[in-house]
Amino acid sequence: MDSQVTSFSPPSVAEENTGGQTGDNQGDVVHLIDSADKEPEQEPLSKKARKKAAKAAYLASVKLERRAREKEAKKRKKQAERERKMAQGEVGDGKSSAEASSGPGERRRKRRKLGQGDEGEGVNVFAAKVVVDLGFDELMSEKEITSLTSQLAYTYSANRHAARPFSGLIFSSLGGRTRTRLDAMNDAGYRRWIGTEWWEEGYERLWTDGDIVKEQNSVEGDGSLETPGLPEHLPEKKTEKEVDDARESVVYLTADSVDELEELKEGETYIIGGICDHNRYKNLCLNKASESKIRHARLPIGRYIASLTTRKVLTVNQVFEILVKWVEGRDWEEAFWSVIPRRKFQNGAERDEENKGVDGGGDAEGKGDGGHEVEEALDG
């Protein structure tokens, strides 16, 4: 007996809801479903609700504005702190001291900046040295000590960012309150200054000290510090001729000198007196240079800026910056005008192009806080 197979199709949703009815009744059901999907219309807000919503929107906008102001203030504060640290010589190119010393690659970059990298990688340094003589600690007040240490930081920064930096920047006779102040500044940040030397000894070390390679024995074979045959670096006093030659290459910059500095020369060393004394001690640096039997000279400010009508003090870093600017452009007048603030001239006097490079007939001298002061130019 053959079995019959009956196919079964499930009723549609509409059929289930209507009990299988079709036709006009089905259309009514679909209409009901569509009506159920529509959201009910919102009732209009009351006056109180509208005021509450407006207040919330206002407070939200005020909050956003406050956050924007706080963010901008924080940014300015961070920038100011970065600039302060750069001035102190702790960081460069916007990086913190920790970042700047984070790895050997960064250290190589910093050495290259002062020409201390691998051969061919260094910048074009000026092969001369500058010494800041700090041997005047007992002659300054606490305020002057504070001022001096800030000037040292700016001096370092000027050399580090110079287009053609000096090959060496030395600070001699470090001690006393000056050292105490430096140690207290930014966790002794000066000890991390790249390309600088700090001597407890005076600048006389320039010609009295030197490491000479001395071959003690010519015995072949393995050597060590305790055995013959190994060249040792032993401090040895220079001969009288070597001392004279080294001393001859040193120039102490002081306004009291009768000699005028014509140009800076590679292979020479220039000393700036590191003292904030506002010219209380006349001939201080000149006498020191004479006692040391070294040359001395004054900056030729009066020759190139005849319009100078005031007697103003230049800081140690300003004297150094003048030297840096001369190295870059080999033009004393341009160097002076780029460093000396215009406010130091009466009536905003402009430079006289006709007098460029001509003796202004005055005895204006470059003399800073350690013997470098802008003195009155006298027509003669």
UniProtKB/TrEMBL annotation:
GO terms for molecular function: tRNA (guanosine(9)-N1)-methyltransferase activity; tRNA binding. GO terms for cellular component: nucleus. Residues 110-347 form the SAM-dependent MTase TRM10-type domain. GO terms for biological process: tRNA N1-guanine methylation. It comes from the Eukaryota. Its EC number is 2.1.1.221. Keywords: Methyltransferase, S-adenosyl-L-methionine, Transferase. It is an enzyme of class 2 (transferase). PANTHER family: TRNA (GUANINE-9-) METHYLTRANSFERASE, TRNA METHYLTRANSFERASE 10 HOMOLOG A. This is tRNA (guanine(9)-N1)-methyltransferase. The lineage of its organism: Eukaryota, Fungi, Dikarya, Basidiomycota, Agaricomycotina.
